[in-house]
Amino acid sequence: MTASVVPQLVVSGAFMGLVYALVAYGFQLTYATSKSINFGQGELVMVSSFITLTLADLGFPYWLVVIGGLLFGVLLGLFVERAAVRLALEQKSEGWILLTIILGLFFFSAAENIWGRDDRPFPTPIPSDAIQVLGISVTPLEISVAVGVIAIMGLIEIFKRMTLLGKAFEAVSVDRDAAELMGVSSTRTVMLSYGLSGLSAAVAGILVSPITTVGPTMASVLVLKAFSVAVVAGLDSGFGVVLVGLVLGSIESLTSFYIGSGWREAPGLVLLILALAVRPAGVFGKVMIRKV
Amino acid sequence: MVKRFFFIHGPEALVFVLLATIPLAVKNTFVLALLTLLAIYGILLIGLDVTVGYLGQVNLAQAAFLGLGAYTAGLAVNHFGIGMQSALLASLLVGLAFGTLLAFPALRLEGPQFALATLSFSALSSTTLNEWESLTNGAQGLQVSRPALFGLHLEAQGFFWFCLVLLAIVWLAMRNLLTSQWGRTFEALRDSPIATDAMGVGTYRHKIAAFALGSALGGLAGGLYAFNFQYLQPQIFVWDLMVVLLLGVVLGGRKNLWGAFVGSALIVLLPNLLSSKLLFRIISFAGLLIAVVAGGRSYIGKGTRPFQALAPVISMSLLVVAAIFVRNIEDMRRAIFALVLFSIVVGLPEGLMGFAARFFSRVLNIPPAPLPGAGPLNLVLEKKDADSSPLLEIRELKRYFGGVRALDGVSLVVSSGQIHGLIGPNGSGKTTLVNVISGLYAPSGGTMLLRGRQLPEGSLYKAARMGISRTFQNLQIFSELTALDNVMVALKGVYNKSLLLVLLGLARGEERCAQSGALALLEMVGLQDKARIPAKDLPYGAQRFLEIARALACRPDLLILDEPAAGLAHPDVKKLVEIIRNIHKLGISTILIEHHMEVVSDLCDVITVLDGGLVIAKGKPEDIKRNPAVIAAYLGVST
């Protein structure tokens, strides 16, 4: 029994790690185009989940509910871009950090007052009975998380590589001014990146909600871990987040089992500080050359 | 002078005396509790303002330092039975120690990474306080009894006076610090860390000191907090409190002691403001009115973008709607903070006191403290003997960027007292060469000797300490500082007083001395009349000259001017030539990168020509002009 406990913990943790990776991927998208990230991203995950839940309660079919939730995520992302990021960058300040924190706080309070403070179950057509694979129990829900995360990241990457709009996205990420000179609107590209980032937050919310239930605080620790994953992997590391996400998820689940569930946040936080101390560009990130 | 003294120190003294006498007049425990809290938060916010205001970084760890300080004091008293003075000292030291520890990784970082590091620290310390139950008693909370202060048992009133005295001490000490070279350097760091390093001021040391100091004040405030409430719970020191603290600093006004004071008054009164519906309505309407007037004025007057002007109005309107329709305002607490903070950050970035300070100094027309006369230039820059001995020797210097060979084995010798021209087509490696010499990049190979001694590699700071000083092709001035302060930040060899003396206000003498030295340098580049103007408001040419004055303030052996004439109008180019001649007369050796051939051939004793990372010619200006290789490199003529 004890022999199989470690692999079991690792696997269950890794599935959660994929969700961190997806949220972290949302940070990468916006960091690439505008060197900014949404500090209130957790609230985007949470609000999209609540909206999806509300749509489901209204009796819409599941596929429509999901599409509605995703669309709402995109809208929220665009709102954050306009009301926080662009507003601050127009003033040429680091104010966007404060403003995104503030918007997050506002969303949190709004959710608290609209939907209440209690956690609610999230309906899903996917069964939750565990199946045994090589002596490790895995639920179809967890598999759906893995499939969903990989699918959405894959789709966005294909979009970035295969379409003209995606190429514009890559161009702005590499050199904003040069792209601007070639007729690519950097403002629109930043908007696009925030839209996609909102989309990935909504996907993360819809995937994780059936497991964690939906409540105002559902994403406040999740986002901390997503920060860790993004920083440890590097904010421009691409698929590096997946690997780091898997590792962090596993470590966390082991910590929680062997040291105590209260400490499960600790490894992510320690890793983040360590990564910033030792290698600020991240494990998979590129080291930038200072220019004058 | 009298007016200045009266209006600046008068209000401070008045407020402290008023605060101190309120408990004598009003015998009310509730009021006393509020006042005590005001003093404690005042100390906390002054500490937070050092990073948020002066370093310009979003610091999310101050609530954690408050918590650490509080638990340190509480546990120290409970376990060791020490007096209040020792317990508070322990809190302060714990804040200082953890602040320094966190500062090492966090302060190499900027912007979002810094915020994330402090956020993680915050979450980590809250986890630890919660989970380490054997020590902190976990979520159950910790009872703390108020110990004696030097054997004296303080009741509520006495404790308030003690807190107030501490606030006054912190206030005075921080004002001394922030108006000294330290405060100037903090601000310079925010504007251009590269330039502060290149001036030999030491980015890292100052950032760590600033952050550690702010954290120490957080720890001290924590100790007082513990003895005030005499009951601690880990949940107190979390995210919500952090947001409230940021609200206090931003609303009160950054870079302003009064701002921290007003901010803490606001934090203390906040729960009461929200509990009275009428009061809240009045405030929200007033807020909307201010937002409309301020937004309208800036839209018409300064041409602010429409959304920029409108956003605070929208957010304040939401607040008014909440004030009218929401039954239980307490439930909407976070949203209200968010709306107010949003309006302030967007609409009034300088905060209430920043705005008030500007307003009053205009209305009352308080003159700034008079400057001393410019000192004699030779006190700042003593004349060096130009003996034409080799000053800088570079052998086979290489620097590769991936596969690009920006420098592919460059050798040159700069003789002492000479102006050494460095020319070459775009992309020939000139700027890379000076970036390697000045320490911005480490070389990939080769040796660099200054007066026969090995030059430090890859450290702007160390190279500057060795006597190399430079200007930048893309200006790196400290834009928020005045012209005078720009030069004073870089002035070398003037500031010798220790941090302790600065805090005690015993370093004013060297400040005057620095002012007169900096003025002499400004006079040399013709900016003596513009000493008080913020650097960002200077015309472009003046900014270039200011960079030269600042580079000279490091008293360099070797001055590197990277395209000083770039973008200058013709009269300014003439002025520049004059300035460089005067520098030459002082015996300072100069490397001059320039595209204006007439400037180069006019000024330089020797010219080195680079192309494709290699030296293709060196010699006197007249020879260089006729050199076929040089002509080919510039005009692309095949030889």
Describe this structure in words.
The complex is a heterodimer of chains A (292) and B (639). With 292 residues, chain A is mainly alpha-helical. The mean pLDDT of chain A is 85. Chain A has helices at 2-34, 41-57, 62-90, 95-115, 140-162, 164-174, 176-181, 186-212, 220-233, 240-258, 266-278; strands at 131-133, 136-138. Chain A has a domain at 18-219. The longest helix of chain A has 33 residues, at 2-34. Chain A has a two-stranded antiparallel sheet. Chain B is of the alpha/beta class and 639 residues long. Chain B has three domains: 11-268, ABC transporter involved in vitamin B12 uptake, BtuC, CATH 1.10.3470; 276-366; 382-479 and 539-635, Rossmann fold, CATH 3.40.50. Chain B contains 27 helices and twelve strands. Chain B has helices at residues 2-25, 29-54, 62-80, 84-106, 111-131, 133-136, 156-178, 181-191, 193-198, 203-229, 239-252, 257-275, 277-301, 306-325, 333-347, 351-363, 377-380, 430-437, 460-466, 483-490, 499-503, 508-524, 540-553, 570-585, 597-603, 621-626, 628-635; strands at 142-143, 231-232, 390-401, 404-415, 419-423, 445-450, 453-454, 468-470, 558-562, 589-593, 606-611, 614-619. In chain B, the strands form three sheets. Chain B has a six-stranded mixed sheet, sandwiched between helices. In chain B, strand 9 (558-562), helix 24 (570-585) and strand 10 form a beta-alpha-beta unit. The longest helix of chain B is centred in the middle third of the chain and has 27 residues, at 203-229. Chain B is elongated and about 90 Å long. The chains are: A mainly alpha (292), B alpha/beta (639). The interface between A and B is large, with 49 and 56 residues.
